[in-house]
Write a structure and sequence with these properties.
single chain; about 400 residues; 2 strands; about 75% helix; globular
């Protein structure tokens, strides 16, 4: 293995560990931007030619330029760290993107299945250990409360990280049904604990995403299986809604979330179904989205001065218009498209798309995604999918595009 590859692997694993293993981040309380910038510099130094050849890097530079100009001329922007009108806050925004983009570009250019396997298994093992470490604390409270009370507490997942876990739920299931028996134990434990952590996070969005995508795990075999799954889900959902079953399901679920933020949302949804009009926190989120849409349509090109603050996608449309939104969304779309070229077999691409769909819902419905969301979407999800594809005996080597 070349020295550059060794340095890259070590750097990537340190970055992943810093973000997903809370004990590490809890004891080394670096400034938010420092570690990502250090990682970015290392990757840039060892792989400059690869990076400057990739179009995603230039979309990122364009996004940096546009946000800089907006802030320089006094525009208040809604970014992952909240509202921003200072250059220091822009640095944090760039730090949330840059290392994930650079690492992704390098991974896309490397054809080493064993490297993917090592990185994936180490990462998944770290995730598993981080879940086991936090479980004893969950007897007293939920993860959302722990994260919001003190995100720097050693061993406690940050609030943004709690949202990101659902992105890899499909690929963990893929590993459970498709990998070798010895490694399948790791995926089984991780799948069970991942569901438990998502449930104990008491974050309504990720719980609903999990409930929505799990039925589609059976649709990977062919289009017919996918259509049957979609029809069954729609039929069951329609029956529950029109026959009052959904209220009964919410009544059943409510005691499990007593005292959490999910409980209030369940109450709001039940009242909305019974009164045929949404209120409370659910209506409040819709109102925030409307504010952002109104801000966007007030000036489609460069955005307006109002935004709701509860959608990464619509908020950027609202405060920067198409001028700022296009390079922002193109960062994600070009990365997804490049991974699509590398993930060639239908089954693996299907589960990759399910993870992308989960991330898209978070980006639309939540006002934060952060470096953790970018890590899971740009790196961890496709990295594990590609490892499982490489390890699958049914995939012919010539099919894998470099």
């Amino acid at each position: 293995m070349k020295i550059k590859t060794i340095i890259f692997n070590i750097t990537l694993l340190l970055y992943i560990t810093y973000l997903i293993f809370p004990l590490f981040a809890g004891y080394f309380n670096f400034p938010t931007w420092l570690f990502p910038i250090v990682v970015s510099v290392i990757v840039l130094v060892i792989y400059p030619r690869l990076i400057v050849k990739n179009k995603t890097f230039y979309w990122f530079l364009l996004y940096c330029l546009i946000t800089f100009v907006f802030v320089y001329f006094g525009r208040v922007l809604k970014l992952d760290i909240g509202t921003s009108h200072f250059m220091y806050q822009l640095i944090i925004e760039y730090a949330f993107f840059l290392p994930n983009i650079l690492v992704t570009i390098v991974l896309l250019s490397i054809d080493d299945g064993l490297m993917y396997k090592r990185l994936s298994l180490i990462t998944l093992s770290l995730l598993l250990v981080s879940f086991i470490v936090i479980i004893p604390q969950l007897n007293y409270t939920d993860l959302r409360s722990l994260a919001l009370s003190d995100q720097n507490m050693a061993g406690v997942m940050g609030y943004t990280l709690l949202h990101a876990y659902v992105i890899i739920l499909p690929v963990v299931f893929l590993g459970l049904i498709g990998c070798k028996k010895a490694i399948r134990i790791l995926f089984l434990l991780l799948f069970v604990l991942l569901l438990y952590i998502i449930f104990k996070s008491s974050i309504t969005t990720t719980i609903l995403i999990s409930v929505a995508i799990i039925p589609f795990f059976s649709g990977y075999r062919n289009k017919r299986a996918l259509y049957i799954t979609a029809i069954l889900v729609a039929a069951i959902g329609g029956l529950l809604y029109y026959e009052g079953g959904l209220v009964a399901v919410l009544d059943w679920a409510e005691p499990y979330f007593e005292g959490t933020a999910v409980e209030q949302k369940i109450i709001d949804i039940k009242e909305g179904l019974l009164m045929d009009r949404m209120g409370g926190t659910v209506a409040g989120r819709e109102d925030l989205h409307k504010i952002s849409w109104n801000g966007f349509f007030s000036n489609i090109l460069t955005g307006g001065n109002t935004f709701g603050g509860h959608s990464c996608l619509v908020d950027r449309l609202a405060c920067m218009g198409l001028v700022g939104f296009i390079p922002y969304i193109m960062i994600y779309l070009t990365i997804i498209n490049q991974w699509k070229q590398k993930i060639v077999k239908h089954k693996f691409r299907y589960f990759y798309y399910l993870g992308v769909a989960a991330a898209a819902i978070i980006l639309y419905s939540k006002g934060l995604f952060g470096q953790e969301g970018n890590l899971f979407l740009m790196i961890l999800l496709p990295m594990v999918v590609y490892y499982l594809q490489f390890d699958d005996k049914e995939v012919v080597a010539s099919e894998i595009k470099i």
